[in-house]
Amino acid sequence: MDAIRTRGLSKRYGESLALDGLDLAVGEGEVYGYLGPNGAGKTTTIRLLLGLHRPTSGRAELFGIDAWADPVSAHARVAYVAGEPYLWPSLTSAETLEFLARLRGGTDIGYRDELVERFQLDLRKKVRALSKGNRQKVQLVAALATRADLLLLDEPTSGLDPLMEMVFRTCVLDAKERGQTVFLSSHILSEVEAVCDRVGILRTGRLVDQGTLQELRHLAAQTVDITFAGPAPRLPDLPGIRVASAGPNALRFEVSGSIDPLLAALDGHPVASLTSREPSLEEIFLHHYESSDGVGDR
Amino acid sequence: MATVEVGTRPSYVALRALARRAFADARVRTAAFAYLFALYSFIQPVGYRHAYPDAAHRAAFAHSFAENVGLRLLYGAPHRVETVDGYTAWRVGGTLAIAAAIFGLLASVRALRGEEDAGRTELVLSGIVGRRTLSTAAAVAIGGGIFTLWIAELAGFVVGGLPVAGSAYLALATASAAMVCAGVGAVASQLAPNRRVALELGGALVGLFFLLRVVADTTSGAGWLRWLTPLGWAEELRPFSGLQPLVLLLPLGVSVLLLACSALIAARRDIGAGLLPERDAADPSLHLLSSPAAQALRSSRGALIAWTGCVAIFAFILGTISNSISSADVSAGVRKQIAKLGVGSIATPTGYLAFVFFLVTLSIVVFACTQVGAARDEEISRRLETLLALPVDRRRWLGGRLVLAAVAATVIALTAGVFAWAGAASSGASVSLPRMLEAGANAVPITLLFAGIAALAYALAPRAGSGITYGLVAVAFVWQLVGSLVSASGWLLGLTPFAHSALVPAQPFDAVGAAVMVAVGAAAAIAALLLFERRDLVGD
Per residue in A33-86, pLDDT tens? Predict the structure, then answer.
């Protein structure tokens, strides 16, 4: 059974369509990266997955349970971290952890103590005296300590410093090791690249691309830099390949699809050096956002 | 373009700009207080002349009221209340002085600490402005606010027909309390780690000032205590009854001293911290964390205690007054108007207490609405998302908050009954405890009705809900007041729930009316639970 499954999930707020026919399936044990800039619909997706907002059409299921119709059962196997930590200012960190643990049940106290240590959380401080990053850490510790089957994380590292960001990545990899499912909504590409098995890219409410990093890379252009032994030759126009000058004797090729036509065209031109680089997630991401219309741009 | 030449008193320019800014920031509150001061000081002489038109009435009034403990508690010791100006000075001396004290505290904590906590002070100090300039500007702005109140009060008296010079002196007596408490607020702002604690510290001291004055005015032989509180100094100035202008040196001296102290500490402490350490850390206390409703009770404990305490104190005071209202005290016209509400004669203890509980009921209804408003705030501030992402049921969450509101309102209502009885009994009125408990309990059905309506309004329209609820309460209450004063026909008056809440103890408890109100309130609450489950959560 899938941990998350949505079918034709749409949400309209007044005039604006925040989410448009989302079909998503995240298998158990998977770490899924959910990418998109601000306003793409990431948080809307999570609110629908948690049954906090009602779908305009379609449905969202967690472990086969309808998130809107039966949220309490659905949440029994889920832990959630919001992008903005909304906690109770008069409680201390320790009291907040206790409150959330009692409401949810099933918290692994030993693991929680370990997490408090790892995230260097000051348990005696009141929430109102904590910085945003520290409040975020309270939320993260509370969620991770449940060892829930599914972790729904909405930009969980906003406000964390680079050291804590590393602690967070380790914790996600630990969770993956234990067979937990992680749904990580983010716009920090390096984070997604580091921990996720599969990535979905959201743009203005639509899922425009989805797959493993390998799959996404094959579909985007790879960069080939060639320095020639003599002056750079004039090559014929090649299908799917863009050429740009990269110095007196050098050319840079953006290759979408097969590299064979380029290799054939190079025949007879002495090559001094050749480097080829796969696109980074950042380039894949920008590729999807730089083209102006959002529909069928692949 | 106003460029500042270096060396030509730039601090004066900055001082003026900062003082203006601080004064303007507080303008809404200043205007509200000024309006209240002008109106209140105008009503006193005018109302007195209207209610006690001749010397015989005034002498009877002075005789019966002079020794009433409850009234001394509220207004202070009376001097020459058989005259218009003496009466006005007495009425204003206790009430406006405490309002002025609160104004002074709020104004100075806002100017000296609120700005700092908002982070703006840091910005200002990062420029060429020094701390002394900042302190002075705040003092100037606070002084401007107090001056505005003085003018407003003076205008009220003069329009009300009192002599100008005496009125100016009386208004100065009121303002002196504001000055001292502004000084208290200034020092508290330097001691406390943040604005909230500064207000708590200053508020506690102002409360102590009030308590000292009350004891001094109501206990024989304790009159000397008046010299320990600025509210007592305002009395000792003796406006319109043997002026003691030298006493002014006390509030003047003390407020200057306090402001100087504050400026001295301000120049030495760190921005964003006080001399007292911040209590933002604590050992965990794990009680009342087992459910959202328990946690709500935990976080609103302070507010609940304050509500209960205030209602208890006022019920007690009004209870002590209940036995001393004689027909001579209240003019025939006023008595007739109040009798139209159905309480009978307010010159009897039961009539008076019934009238008082009509008002107590209103305040308990408002309390219940604030509790529903607190639940709404949980959603608007998005903390509810944190809760409902857990296996927490929406209906149980809202239901728990409603039960909490109902139980707390019931406790406050019964407390009011007990304390009104204690006050009445202490002054020898023949009112029984069960009857006063009944009067308190009588406030519960209409409270449940409005709590249900408030919940329904919140479930339907989370943003506008609070406004709708308070609007409905106000309309219903005014409907009842105006409707009974103009003797509206039965069915028209029957449109407001207040018409169905019996005026216990003057009238018997109306079981049918109460049952209908509870039923409608419960139906509204159930509808609220069902509707709340069907909508999106909202946030700020």
Answer: 999 888 889 999 999 999 999 999 999 999 999 999 999 999 999 999 998 999
CA–CA separation, B118 vs B110, rounded Å? 10
Q: Give the closest of B278, B283, B382 to A86, CB-based.
A: B382
Assigned token pair, B487? 């003797």
**How, if at all, do strands A16-27 and A31-35 pair?**
unpaired
Rounded Cα gap, residues B219 and B202, in angstroms:
26
Residue B7 has φ and ψ, to the nearest 5°, of 95, -10
Residue at token pair 């009316």: B513
Q: Who among A84, A103, A126 is closest to B282 (CB)? A: A126
Q: How many C-alpha atoms does B155 have within 13 Å on its Cβ side?
A: 12
Does B83 reside within a domain?
Answer: no
Tell me the CA distances in angstroms from B148 to A12, A234, B473, one per residue in order: 52, 85, 33
At residue B326, the pLDDT reads 63
* Residues B204, B323 within the same domain: no
- Kindly report the pTM of this predicted structure: 0.78
Tell me which amino acid residue B239 is.
P
| Contacting residues of B for A86, CB less than 8 Å apart | 381-383, 385-386
What's the DSSP call for residue B110?
Answer: I
Peptide bond into B10 cis (omega under 30): no
DSSP assignment of A66-82 equals ETTT-HHHHHTTEEEE-
Contact by Cβ (8 Å): B410, B442: no
B184 by DSSP, 3-state: which?
helix
Q: Specify the DSSP element, H or E, that contains A26.
A: strand A16-27
Write down which residue in B277, B309, B328 finishes a domain: B277
Residues 378-407 of B with CB under 8 A from A: 381-383, 385-394
Picking from A193, A184, A196, the residue whose alpha carbon sits closest to that of residue A144 is: A184
Question: Does some domain include residue B282?
Answer: no
pLDDT of residue B333: 66
Say how many C-beta atoms besides its own lie within 10 A of residue A248's C-beta.
9
Q: Which SS3 state, helix, strand or coil, does residue B461 take?
A: coil
DSSP A260: H
Q: Which of B153, B185, B180, B177 is nearest to B231 (CA)?
A: B177
Which of A285, A266, A140, A134 lies closest to A209 in space, CA to CA? A285
Give bridge partners of residue A269 from the DSSP assignment.
none
The parent domain of residue B342 ranges over 288-540
Where does chain A have alpha helices with state H?
A: 42-49, 71-75, 93-104, 109-118, 132-144, 162-177, 189-195, 213-219, 260-265, 281-290
Distance of CA B223 to CAs A192, B67, B215, B216, Å?
A: 75, 15, 8, 4
B465 and B418 in one domain?
yes
CB A32 within 8 A of CB A185: no
DSSP classification of residue A92: B
Q: Do B283 and A87 touch (CB under 8 A)?
A: no
pLDDT score for B2: 47
Q: How much is the ipTM here?
A: 0.84
Which residues, including other chains, have CB under 8 Å from residue B117's CB and lie 6 or more apart? B194, B195, B272
Domain count, chain B: 2
Same domain for B299 and B264: no
- Pairwise CB contact (< 8 Å): B382 & A125: no
Confirm if B344 and B353 have CB atoms less than 8 A apart: no
Q: Which of B291, B386, B393 sits opposite A86 (nearest CB)?
A: B386
Q: Look at residue B147 and tell me if it is in a domain.
A: yes
Q: Would you say B144 and B18 are in contact if contact means Cβ atoms under 8 Å apart?
A: no
Q: Please, are residues A33 and A196 in contact by the beta-carbon 8 Å criterion?
A: yes
